[in-house]
Amino acid sequence: MTMRRTDVVIVGGGLIGAWTAFFLARRGRKVVLVEKGVVGAQSSGTNFGNLRLQGRFPGQYPLSLRAQALWEDIEELIGDRCEFDPSGHLYIAFNDAEREKLEKYAAVSESHGLAIEHLGAADLARRYPWLSGKAVAATFSPRDATANPRLVTPAVARAAKALGVEVVEQCTVMQARREAAGFVLETADGRSFGCDHLVNAAGAWAGEIAQMFGEGAPLFPAGPPQFVTEPFPYFIRPSVQAVDGTVIFRQIPRGNVILAGYPRTAADPIRNRAPVPPAKTLAAMRHLTAVVPALRDCHVIRVWSGIEGYLPDMIPVIGPSMTTDGLFHAFGFCGHGFQIGPGVGLCLSEMICDGSTETPLDPFSIARFRGAVAEDEKFRREFDLPAAAR
Amino acid sequence: MAGGDNGASAAGEGRFVQAVPREAERVRFTIDGKSAEAQAGDSLLAAILVQRPVLRRHEFDGGERAGFCLMGACQDCWVWSEAGERLRACTTPVAAGMAIVTEPPAERFAHGRAHG
Amino acid sequence: MAELMAEVVIVGAGPAGIRAAGILAAQGLRPILVDEGRQAGGQGYRRPSPGLALDMDTLMGTEAGKYKALHADFAALLNRIDYRPRTLVWGIEDRRLHCVRDGRQTTIAFDALIVATGAMDRIAPLPGWILPGVFTLGGAQAVLKDQGCLVGRRVAFLGASPLLSLAALQYRKLGAEVVAVCDTSSFRDKIAALPQLAAVPRTLARGIAYLAALKRARVPLFDGVTPLAIEGEAGVTALRFRDGRGHERRIACDAVALGYGLKPETQLAELAGARFAFDARFRLWLPVTDEDGRAGEGLYLAGDGAAIGGADAAEASGALAALAVLHDLGLRSEHDERPALRRRLARLRRFQQGLARAFRWPVAALARLSDEVAVCRCEHVTAGDIRRAMDADLGPVDVNRVKAITRCGMGRCQGRVCGPALQEIAAAHAGLPVEAVGRLRGQAPLKPVPLGILEEEEA
Q1: In a domain, B65, yes or no
Q2: If you average pLDDT over every residue of chain B, what do you get?
Q3: Closest Cα in chain B, distance from residue A162 (Å)
Q4: How many domains in chain B?
Q5: How far is CA A189 from CA A168, A170, A175, C82, in A?
Q6: Where in the numbering of this chain does the FAD dependent oxidoreductase domain appear (chain A) (predicted)?
Q7: Is the CB of residue A62 less than 8 Å away from at least one CB of chain B?
Q8: Minimum-distance CB partner of B19 among C120, C148, C254
Q9: Is residue C52 within 8 Å of B22, Cβ to Cβ?
């Protein structure tokens, strides 16, 4: 068996893997991107498509802002706009306690230089007459945006391929190990790859790769129930999210409203399925009509979910392995990987090419799972516990 | 529709032909504000298409549509009521007082009111 | 007796569902019969809506007896079953159906589920097929039976189906001018299928009689036709095609009824857990069942929604599915009718395999379909959009990925209409056998449901 030698192998053809491949190729590295199915098919392709900046984990702002600048440049970068739309994001509160929470989020956002508009009930009624009186306050972040997740990953992978990346689809990594001369990977179809650097961007399946190097993270699969309505006249411009987590929605210019609801539902990474229980669809429908009553007669035409990797502290693993030189992890994006995707890819390429990145990534080290990890407050309300509890 | 070649009708007549008579109560309804008559038991689709050549304008291609499968599968015959309800014309019976609009009531969305 | 408490739910009140309900009721069960329609009968045995002076004897001809018997049996059953018309099943989870009736949400729990959701026309797009005035062949018949309406004044019938000639005769009887009956399959195809068609000689003879009647009435009949376009600006004005001898013809008309046989409505069976296999004879993905219709634990499929067989086969398979339910509940009757029903069903389905051979799905024409023709009428996605997406570097091959990139099959009908054509176009473009590009997966809701449906306590 002949081994294919390359500089970097990336396991996982999702958004993270594709962007990492793209930026490494721009730095002249020879890259093989290995994907067990087809590029962009899992959570990278089935997520809500939000490029939200406000309300993120505080330690993520440098990375997020760096990523947003890349999104704003996406057409320049990869030659495809992918329906990128700087529509802004409206974070809404249903009561005073939630309003205070929004104010805290806003203070963090503003400390990182993000412009936030603070809106009261009267502002909301004037600016968004379609919102019900249930929303009493909101913060609006004009720099937040959306894009079409179904299009982005294939487009980035295509751009990476044009820069010389070898994209290998329908190829499952069975074994990966570190030898003196570098990494050796063996795949289910009998191929083998050798490389100096290995990137584990295998999404909900990344735990298995980490384990091959004696490293673990309490990763579990889940998916947000999502649905889309029939098209009707375009009137909802920013994407809207309730800070209580019940509903997040946006309308695309074609007229369809897309919704993601909580709690997230159990997913099955072995059978590759993330079915949406009807009760979740109904709950999401109720929450949406409570916020936008004009939608009550519009029809839901399709529901779906995708398999995402989650970690109990609701932040991802990004950075070097603690056990193996040359191995880098980027997984467990907990439902917010879409926005930071290009930033993560750029940072990984810098770590591999330069040995470090200017963007602070310490909070995302896999080292944190050596000790006890604090569960995020969102954890209990955003999942169906039987599926999520570990 | 604005004149033109609609196949069914030079003189604005309907696309469908009522070939078999029906003994039923006459009901009045409106299509895009214009008064119309049908018989109880008529599907909304038949009630509209016996007097007009088309049902609705398509969202994306801008062309007009008159339904297709006529049995509730293709979802190509949804019309609106003035109050904003969605009605699948081929499976909805016409009822007295219905106010049908063939274009979405855009104003309703702009102001965000659920009804009226 | 605990088994008697078992809740059996049947979805679809066509011949399969009604026969299943009858057998269960005869055993003392009170099945719930859920149907989206306003009146029982399904599509083929659709009843005239109230007050319509339609003579079904004339319209149904030799089949009128079966039509009347089924509706009479249904009427006699009504007080022994829980019949729920106007009820759309949109989702399923844990032996519970989620339904919407009159704009309100309800759920129905079940121990055993018989899915008898029927079929719709299989459609091959051609230039002009989305014009107002083009309808499915089944739809053209449905609107005649149910509403007493003709879809136009000068009607052309196009496709590959024995129902072309039946529908044309019905239209003619009720006063339409039938300007052409254009069959895309050839006389040779029919000869090749004769051995299988001989399985049910009576039905074969009926088909020949329809054609003879049309000939006598001097209705222009064409076979081996290559459709070129349906013409018109804002509605149909003509059908253009090449006849079997290669002459191009243009026939003025104001309506076209289009159909290439039937495809099963399998979306509910899929959400309920049925597995699918590709059937090369029909060139369709069909749910996998045993000979009595078992498709999984507590899941039974019957009628055209399980395998295309026609109304007689639907009755037989409905009866078999109900007997399978009874058998699995431990309620066996002394006289076992199943062997006879199985033989009958096999014979009827063999006949349908013959029909699929005689009236061929136009694979080559779909492969050649011109780039500007819309394939998905919901989202307006053209054949060219599909091919361009596939041609892109790392472009999709599987139809679900094609859907993700192009939106073909993503609209209100969820690919019911465009799915079979999409498969052929994708397979031809990839140079693969059609089964290699997969099938569009079903997703809830099975049909659109309004956001404002309110939850209701279970009845």
Answers
A1: yes
A2: 86
A3: 33
A4: 1
A5: 11, 9, 12, 55
A6: 7-351
A7: no
A8: C148
A9: yes
Tell me the count of B-C CB pairs closer than 8 A: 187
Q: Which residues of B touch A135 (CB under 8 A)?
A: none
Question: Cα–chain-centroid distance for residue A82?
Answer: 16
Contact state of C394 with A302 under an 8 Å Cβ cutoff: no
- Indicate if C101 and C153 belong to the same structural domain: no
Set of chain C residues whose Cβ sits within 8 Å of the Cβ of B15: 132-133, 151-152, 235, 254-255
| Per-residue confidence in pLDDT tens, chain C, 459 aa | 444 578 999 999 999 999 999 999 999 999 999 999 999 999 989 999 888 999 988 888 888 999 999 999 999 999 999 999 999 999 999 899 999 998 899 999 999 999 999 999 999 999 999 999 999 999 999 999 999 999 999 999 999 999 999 999 999 999 999 999 999 999 999 999 999 999 889 999 999 999 999 999 999 999 999 999 999 999 999 999 999 999 999 999 999 999 999 999 999 999 999 999 999 999 999 999 999 999 999 999 999 999 999 999 999 999 999 999 999 999 877 788 999 999 999 999 999 999 999 999 999 999 999 999 999 999 999 999 999 999 999 999 999 999 999 999 999 999 999 999 999 999 999 999 999 999 999 999 999 999 998 744 443
Extract the runs of DSSP E, i.e. beta strands, from C176-317: 177-183, 221-223, 226-231, 238-242, 248-252, 255-259, 262-264, 276-279, 284-287, 294-296, 299-301
Regarding beta strands A265-266 and A220-223, do their DSSP bridges make them parallel or antiparallel, or are they unpaired?
A: antiparallel
The answer to whether A229 contacts chain C (CB < 8 Å) is yes
How far is the C-alpha of C217 from the C-alpha of A255, rounded, in Å? 50
**Contact across the interface for B110 and A293, Cβ inside 8 Å:** no
What tokens appear for A346 in the block? 């750029």
- Which residues have CB under 8 Å from C187's CB, separation 6+? C223, C224, C244
Instruction: Identify whether residues C34 and C66 lie together within a single domain.
Output: yes
Total count of residues recorded for chain C: 459
Residue B18, in any domain of the structure: no
Q: Is C401 on the interface with A (CB under 8 A)?
A: yes
- Structural domains present in chain A: 3-49+150-219+311-373 (3.50.50.60)
Do C305 and C328 fall into the same domain? yes
Q: In terms of domains, do C136 and C244 share one?
A: yes
Give the whole-angstrom CA distance, residue A244 versus residue A130.
20
Predicted local distance difference test score (pLDDT) of residue A377: 66
Q: Specify if B60 maps to a domain.
A: yes
State whether residue B16 sits within 8 Å of chain A by CB.
no
Report how far Cα C426 is from the mean position of its chain's Cα atoms. Answer: 23
B contacts of C233 (beta carbons < 8 Å): 4-6
Q: Are residues C240 and C337 in the same domain?
A: no
Distance separating alpha carbons of residues C101 and C99, to the nearest angstrom:
7
Domain membership of residue B91 as a residue range? 37-101
Give the closest of C98, C401, C448 to A230, CB-based: C448
* Domains held by chain C: number: 3
Cβ contacts of A298 on chain B, cutoff 8 Å: 86
Mean pLDDT of chain A: 93
Instruction: Indicate whether B78 belongs to any domain.
Output: yes
Task: Check whether residue C102 and residue C157 sit in a common domain.
Answer: no
Q: Which of A279, A288, A300 faces C449 most closely, judged by CB atoms?
A: A300
Q: Are residues C312 and C420 in the same domain?
A: no
Q: Is residue C80 part of a domain?
A: yes
ipTM above 0.85, yes or no: yes
Instruction: Give the one of A45, A157, A297 whose C-beta lies nearest to C404's C-beta.
Output: A45
pTM to 2 decimal places: 0.94
Q: Which domain holds residue C376?
A: 363-437
The answer to the question of residue C443 being in a domain is no
User: Using the beta-carbon criterion (under 8 Å), do A233 and B106 form an inter-chain contact?
Assistant: yes
Q: Do B85 and A297 touch (CB under 8 A)?
A: yes
Q: Do A235 and B60 touch (CB under 8 A)?
A: no
Nearest Cα of chain B lies from the Cα of A73 at a distance, in angstroms, of 28
> Could you tell me which chain C residue has the CA closest to the CA of B62?
C380
Quote the CA–CA distance of C325 and A278 in Å, as a whole number: 26
> Which residues in chain B touch residue A90, judged by CB atoms under 8 angstroms apart?
none
